[in-house]
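User: We ran a pulldown and think these components assemble together. Before we commit to crystallization trials, I'd like a predicted model of the whole complex to look at. Sequences follow.
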Amino acid sequence: EAQVTQNPRYLITVTGKKLTVTCSQNMNHEYMSWYRQDPGLGLRQIYYSMNVEVTDKGDVPEGYKVSRKEKRNFPLILESPSPNQTSLYFCASKLSRESTGELFFGEGSRLTVL
Amino acid sequence: GENVEQHPSTLSVQEGDSAVIKCTYSDSASNYFPWYKQELGKGPQLIIDIRSNVGEKKDQRIAVTLNKTAKHFSLHITETQPEDSAVYFCAASGRGGSARQLTFGSGTQLTVLP
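Assistant: Here's a predicted model for the assembly, 228 residues in total across the polymer chains.
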């Protein structure tokens, strides 16, 4: 089944404790992206990747890191999480780097930073 | 960069009535306008999209209209059903692969009352 898989789905952590949210897609998609969803703010892009070893900042990159060493994986790293990073996170992918085309989303990862 | 505004933030309709959600965008170079539906506990899913060379597109009970001059586009759902209850996001995308691609609106919580 074609899908985007995120882990963990739920996580409660404390300020400063490094964490990684994994994302994997099995559709051989070139483009991958991370979004955070907050009430009243919609989906805001954190980072995106056009292809392996190519990443770029989105609208809200502060406090996050990403890497794209393999085409299928695009982990999101919070080196020193803070309470303002409490949010619902979505990984998404699409076939190509073109601006059109369907984005496929994962089921989301709800993160709470105490 | 692109700015997308979406209204209303919440919308309640009686089953069988129509629902309309409106979005405006700021970048006249944007040329792709998708709509995503997010059911409770899931990631957003594409329901319909429109490109800038088309003024209207229909798919069964849903339709999208685009007014490039005024820089706004709308989602129309007719004969609403309880399963239409969800959060709906509009988005706009500019040309070229180097842009941040999709910018989302803030979302509309649609509730269809039985």
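DSSP finds no helices and eleven strands in chain A. That may be worth checking against your pulldown data before setting up trials.

User: Thanks, that helps.
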